[in-house]
Amino acid sequence: MKKKLIQHTSEHFEKLFHSQPQSIFLSPGRINIIGEHVDYNDGFVMPAAINKYICFAISKNENSECALIAKDLNEAYKFDMKDELKPVEKMWVNYILGVLSQLKDKYGLVQGFNIVFSSTIPMGAGLSSSAALECGIGYAMNTLFDLGLTKENIALIGQKSEHTFVGVNCGIMDQFASVFGKKNKVIKLDCNTLEHEYYKADFKKYSLLLLDSNVKHTHLTSGYNVRRQEVEAGLKIIQEHFPQVKTFRNCTENMVLELKEKLGDTVFRRCHFVVKEIQRVLDAAAALSQSDFKKLGELMSETHQGLSKEYEVSCEEIDFLVDAVQHEKTVLGSRMMGGGFGGCSINLVEKGTEETLIKTISERYADAFGIELKAYKVKISKGTTLYKDNHAAIQ
Ligand code: GLA
Q1: Which of 37, 129, 225, 232 to mutate to test the pocket of ligand 1 (most atoms within 8 A of CB)?
Q2: Nearest-angstrom CA–CA distance, 259 and 201
Q3: pTM for the whole structure
Q4: 227-243: string of b/e by CB count within 10 Å (b at 16+)?
Q5: Ligand 1 pocket, 277 CB below 6 A?
Q6: What's 125's DSSP letter?
Q7: Interval between CA 218 and ligand 1 midpoint (Å)
Q8: Where are the domains of the chain?
C-alpha cells in the first residue's frame, strides 16, 4: 500500500512537471488509545502514528512560484510566495497556506516549489488527515529549505494553521502524534508541557481494530469549538471558587461535584468528563505497562460513555457501533475516537477474531443505517519522514 502510494504520487509528479521529484515525504495519520478532548484541557493523551499516510512528491523552484496538486481531489492551486498568503475558498489549500504563511513570516521562506500529494488516510474519519497534511508540509519545507525547525515547532505550526486558516481551535494531539510517532510505540503526551514518553505498543493477544462509521465530520461545523468555549467557561467558575486550580489538571472530581449547581447541567457534565478523562489516561498508561488489557478495555469503554453522555460528541451511528460490540467476548473495550460527530470507533479485539467481528457488525450496521461499514487493522508506525531524497532511499 505504502509502495503503491509513493509510486503513483511520484509518477503523477513526473507526468505534470516532466522531471522526477527531488524528494518524497510521508506524513502519517494517527489513532488515539485514550484521552479524548483533553489535549486542549491540559490533560494527557495516548496517541500513535499509523501506517496510513499522505505522500508528498516535491521539487524546489528557482523562483517564488508554487503549485500544489491534490491528486486524489484532482485539484490544483497556484500562487506566489511573494503574494500575501490568506485563507481561500478551497479548504485543503488552507491547511497548507496556514503553515506556509507562518514559515514565510517567521522563518523567511520565500522560495517556490511544486508539490503533488496523495493519501491513504480516509478524510473525515477521525484519523487526522489534516494534521498529516500540515505536518508533512512543515516537515518538507524545513528539510528542503533548511529552516532549522524542531519537531515541536513543526507540530505547533500545524496546530496554529488550523486555528488561523481553518478556524478549528484544535489541541496539539494530532500534529504531535503525526510528527513524533514511532514504530510500535504509543506516545503518552502531557499536553500542558509537551513532555512525552513512549510506551511499547504490545497488546499481546489483542489488536486494535477501527470501525469506520462512514459518517463524515468537519470540526468547523461540528460542536468542537463550542465544546472548547463550554469548558473554558466552566474552568473560570471553578477557579473563582478554588483559586488554587490553575488548569483542569489540578481540579478534582469533588470540586466539580461541589459546583454542580453553579456550573449548570451542561457545563457541569463537560467539566466532569474532562476531570475523569485526565485520570483515565494515567490509569490506562499503568494498565498498558502491566499488560492489563482487561483494565485498559474497561477504561476505553468508560471513556466512550463519558464522550457520548457527558461531553456529547458522539453520534447515533458511532454509539451503535460501540454498543454492538459490548457483549462480544472477543472485544475488551470500544469507544469513539478523535473529535467525534462521526468517524471511527477504536476497539481492543482478540487477535484472529477480527474478520468474524467485522462481518457481524457490518451486517447489523447496514441493517440499521443502510451504510457500508469500513474496517481498518492499523499498524503503529513512525512519524513524518523524508522517505527519499534525490532518489537515494534513506530508509
Ligand atoms: C480532534 C482535534 C484534537 C483533539 C481531538 C479530540 O482530533 O484535532 O486536537 O482535541 O479532536 O481528542
Answers
A1: 37
A2: 39
A3: 0.96
A4: bbebbebbbebbeeeee
A5: no
A6: S
A7: 12
A8: 2-200+381-393, 206-378
Q: Positive or negative CA dihedral for 269, 275, 281, 287?
A: negative
Cell readout for 256 is 466539580
Cβ of 361: how many Cβ atoms within 10 Å? 22
Is residue 131 within 8 A of residue 177, CB to CB? The reply is yes
Query: What whole-number distance in Å separates Cα of residue 28 and Cα of residue 55?
Result: 9
Give the pLDDT confidence of 202-211 residue by residue, as tens digits. Answer: 999 999 999 9
Q: What is the pLDDT of residue 217?
A: 74
The grid cell for 112 is: 517556490
Annotated catalytic residue, options 174, 292, 323, 389: 174
Distance from the alpha carbon of residue 281 to the mean position of ligand 1, in angstroms: 15
Mean pLDDT of the chain, nearest integer: 96
Q: What is the DSSP letter of 84?
A: P
Q: What CATH class does 2-200+381-393 carry?
A: alpha beta
Quote the percentage of the chain above a pLDDT of 70: 98
Contact 191 CB / ligand 1 (< 6 Å):
no
Cα–Cα distance for residue pair 124/337, rounded to 1 Å: 12
Of 217, 219, 188, the residue nearest 201 (C-alpha):
188
CATH 3.40.190.120 matches 206-378: no
CB of 42 within 6 A of ligand 1: the answer is no
Tell me whether residue 174 is one of the annotated catalytic residues.
Answer: yes
Q: Whose CA is nearest to atom 1 of ligand 1?
A: 339
141 C-beta neighbours (distance < 10 Å), count: 26
**39 within ligand 1 shell (Cβ under 6 A):** yes
**Residue 119: what pLDDT?**
98
CA of residue 393 to ligand 1 center, whole Å: 33
Provide long-range contacts, Cβ within 8 A and 24+ apart, for 301-306: 301/326, 301/333, 301/334, 301/335, 302/276, 303/34, 303/36, 303/277, 303/335, 304/334, 304/335, 304/336, 304/345, 306/273, 306/276, 306/277
pLDDT band at 391 (very low <50, low <70, confident <90, very high): very low
Cα–Cα distance measured from residue 300 to residue 296, given in angstroms and rounded to the nearest whole number: 6
